[in-house]
Design brief:
Immunoglobulin-like
């Protein structure tokens, strides 16, 4: 595995809404073997926010109502104002068949709108 890509089912989410966050492993199996799939063994998500609704972007404090749950679903609190940009950062580990552990990370940006 050479990395991960992090994507979402939505680029904009309303306050109180949700969007699925997806992680996909990047890499190849050598030699190519049918029936073997490489996927992250685990992932940890963090959510940060930037208020871009005004002329001066600023860090935006999030309550515990905005988080990514254990199924990868981003839940946006109804207290997040429109115009805030959420950055969902994922750190993923993969344990390959030889027992070696790799750590990779990536992020996706979603706007509250």
């Amino acid at each position: 595995m050479t990395g991960i890509t992090v994507s979402s089912t939505a680029t904009t989410v309303k306050p109180g809404g949700s969007a699925q966050i997806n992680i996909k492993a990047v890499g190849s199996i050598t030699p190519e073997t049918d029936g073997i799939e490489v996927s992250p063994s685990s992932a940890v998500f963090t959510v940060s926010a930037l208020d871009k609704s005004g002329t001066d972007p600023a860090a935006y404090p999030l309550s515990g109502r905005t988080y990514v749950d254990n199924t990868g679903l981003l839940r946006v609190g109804d207290d997040v104002k429109i115009g805030v940009e959420l950055t969902i950062h994922a750190i993923s580990t993969y344990v390959n068949p030889s027992g070696e552990t790799q750590t990779n990370d990536g992020e996706v940006v979603i706007t509250v709108g």
